[in-house]
Amino acid sequence: MYQRILVANRGEIALRIFRACRELGIETVAIYSEADRGSHYLELADEAFCVGPARPADSYLRIANVISAAEVGNVQAIHPGYGFLAENAHFNEVCRSCKIDFIGPSPEAMAKLGDKNVAREMAKKAKVPIVPGSDGLIESADEALRFAHEVGFPVLIKAVAGGGGKGMRVAANDLALKTALQQAQTEAEAAFGNGDVYLEKYIEQPRHVEVQVLADHHGNVIHLWERDCSVQRRHQKLIEESPSTSINQKTRDAMCEAAKRMIQQADYTNAATVEFIVDKEGKFYFIEVNARIQVEHPVTELVTGIDLIKQQILIASGEKLSIRQKDVKRQGCAIECRINAENPKKNFQPSPGKIDRLIVPGGYGVRFDSHAHSGYEVPPYYDSMIGKLIVHQPTRAEAIRTMQRALAELRVDGIHTTISLHQEILNHSAFVEGNIDTTFVERTLSIG
Ligand code: MV4
Q: Does domain 132-201 have CATH number 3.40.109.10?
């Protein structure tokens, strides 16, 4: 087992990893930018190094500085968290060449799954349902038109280097397709340095359901059931829950088995999330694999009783999974609300600044993962999420009640937050009835 791990991240996920390491008896090395200097959560690490100025490109994304901190800190492994370098195959490769374990998949598996068209091909081989789509990349407008007439409009143009909704464009007819194709290729080239695109039939008003998977270096792969992430706005997830209200048990079993086949096909190790969309008829389709631990991992931890960060560390250190598939029971319902420093009344513009007072909810079934505290200065340079409020109860109705209570207790004075938005969603009949798809927020709420 490792003696020391560097956590190449900041905020709540860095704190989450410090805590898991502390319990495993592993020392931790933190990194921080000038903007995060003096943050309280850094005190929960054993050592901390400044890796540069506030801008992510000059600090958390500066590979040479992160690796230098790892060398000086004399660590055996690096946990990347999510975002920043978590899915950067080059950084993964640099860790390997410096003989530092990357707590995640191999660079090869990460690179393959980062190409959304390669991932589609792998899904086909693994007999995982995919959306009817082009057979590989689209080279010309004529080819795109031919495909679109085959499956029928609307179609979705996707960048192979995209993901998470980036580099996507919907086209409803021939003329729109020609324009959208050019725009998507230009945008993808600019954003990812790779303008390659492929096409899929556009599944309207889908549900977004993802399956958590763990795979060790000894051929063991287990799923830890699904999470429903349909409540989102402009590809930013707001609320996640398990189990999903979108699928029945037959679909759930098929989706979870498909997720395991996908991970086996990709020769993947460590934690992954296999993402699907579900259409109105209840059919599911593979979308992409997220080769990292996700923000919403506590939802799965609460319903399965499994600490996913500890499992990641044990797998990376070479240990065999001690959990067999038949041991993965799911109990109750968990719901997570992302608490962002944003103003829902001003188009969700970021609301950095000083938290004059933070009062954290508690009581039975309540967890609050956050690095924030009274007097904490929310910096303007990074993601606006300041914490995650997660509840766990035997039934969804009870979980909703507990979340409503916890949101009413939560106090974040001095900045704007998404608390009121979550209260509106939790009180909405469509949410209570479990009748939500990915267009729910934009379509029904006053915030649009
Ligand atoms: C789709 C889709 C509908 N049809 N693909 C791609 C990125 C992933 N995170 C979600 N993606 C989607 N892929 C086809 N063929 C719908 C989504 C999707 C979505 C799309 C637009 C706006 C919000 C969305 C939220 C979840 C899923």
A: no
Residue 172 main-chain phi, psi, to 5 deg: -105, -10
Active site residue 338: no
pLDDT above 70 (res 447): no
Q: What is the fold, at CATH topology level, of the domain defined by 207-444?
A: D-amino Acid Aminotransferase; Chain A, domain 1 (3.30.470)
Say whether pLDDT at 274 is over 90: yes
The residue contributing the CA closest to ligand 1 atom 3 is 203
Domain boundaries, the chain: 4-103, 132-201, 207-444
- Torsion over CA: 45, 50, 56, 60 (sign): negative
Q: Which residues contact 283 (CB under 8 A, 6 or more apart)?
A: 129
* Alpha-carbon span 440 to 448, nearest angstrom: 9
Distance CA 288, CA 306 (A): 24
Instruction: Evaluate the omega torsion of the peptide bond into residue 154 and state whether it is cis, within 30 degrees of 0.
Output: yes
Q: What residues pair up with 274 in beta bridges, in sequence order?
A: 211, 289
Pocket, ligand 1, Cβ cutoff 6 A = 131, 156, 164-165, 168, 200-203, 206, 208, 232, 235, 275, 277, 287, 438
Q: Helix, strand, coil shares of the chain as percentages rounded to 5?
A: 35, 30, 35
Q: Where are the alpha helices (DSSP H) in 43-173?
A: 63-72, 89-97, 107-114, 116-125, 141-151
pLDDT of amino acid 135: 85
The arrangement of secondary structure in 4-103, i.e. its CATH architecture, is 3-Layer(aba) Sandwich (3.40)
User: How do residues 13-47 score in pLDDT, each as one tens digit?
Assistant: 999 999 999 999 999 999 999 999 999 999 999 99
Distance 132 CA to ligand 1 centre (A): 14
DSSP helix/strand/coil, 92? helix
> For residue 247, with 0-12 CB atoms within 10 Å meaning exposed, 13-18 middle and 19 or more buried, which class applies?
buried
Tokens 């959304």: give the residue. 116
d(CA 337, CA 367): 11
The token duo for 16 is 């989450």
